[in-house]
Amino acid sequence: VQWRQERTDIKNESIAEPVPLPNQLEQKCPLQRDIEELKNTVESIRLALASHERFNSDARSRHSTPNTTNLSQQMDSGLGEMSNVPDALGRSTDSIREDDSFDLLLTNIDGNVSEEDIQRMVARSLGARDNEIIHVKKLVPRWVDCSTLDYISFKVVLNHKWKVSAMLSATWPKNVRFREFRKVRCPWRPETV
Questions:
Q1: Rounded to an integer, what distance in angstroms lies between the CA atom of residue 44 and that of residue 49?
Q2: What is the dihedral of CA 78, 83, 87, 89, to 10 degrees?
Q3: pTM of the predicted model as reported, rounded to 2 decimal places
Q4: pLDDT, tens digit, for every residue of 139-176?
């Protein structure tokens, strides 16, 4: 046991830092400055990442089902603003091929909102031109009275160049939820016996 204690004391003494000589201090100064600069850089990167995470904190809610609430009062004020946007109907789809588009799901929208209102809102929010919004489809069966629903959803087909902007929560009005509308290539079927 004493041998271990002596060996530990010897190791601790050898680990102790020697007193630097004056010429070693001069050599350490540039290294210390570099270390301080790197620490500052790392700190600024950490702060940038933290702010980015706060900015995108609603990323998880983007794909979840929205809370069911009655939004008619909120949407009434928004409909007046939408009517000031130039009419976005009569869009030409000839200039855009199928593979140049992507589908977007917009949900948590009042049941009284029409496809034309959504088309104008999308054009205003993205700053899109006439041939860049291909199609808007209300995702509610025809026999259902939309005004009785808490919210409805729309499928919007856009030019692929708007995908990055369309996937940012800052692009859309408050309380509008969105996600990419993916085409399911392998639908579920019951297993055969």
A1: 9
A2: 60
A3: 0.47
A4: 998 888 888 889 999 999 988 888 898 999 999 999 99
Backbone angles phi, psi at 69, to 5 degrees: -140, 165
Q: Which residue has the tokens 């680990």?
A: 15
- Cβ pair 192, 153 in contact under 8 A: no
Distance CA 135, CA 77 (A): 25
Q: Which residues neighbour 143 within 8 Å (Cβ) at sequence distance 6 or greater? A: none
Token pair 């794909």 is found at 63
Residue 144 tokens, joined: 């259902």
DSSP string, 123-179: HHHHT--GGGEEEEEE-S-TTS-GGGSS-EEEEEEEEGGGHHHHT-GGGSPTT-EEE
- Give the per-residue SS3 of 63-85: HCCCCCCCCHHHHHHHHHHHCCC
Helices 115-126 and 72-82: crossing angle in degrees, nearest 10, is 70
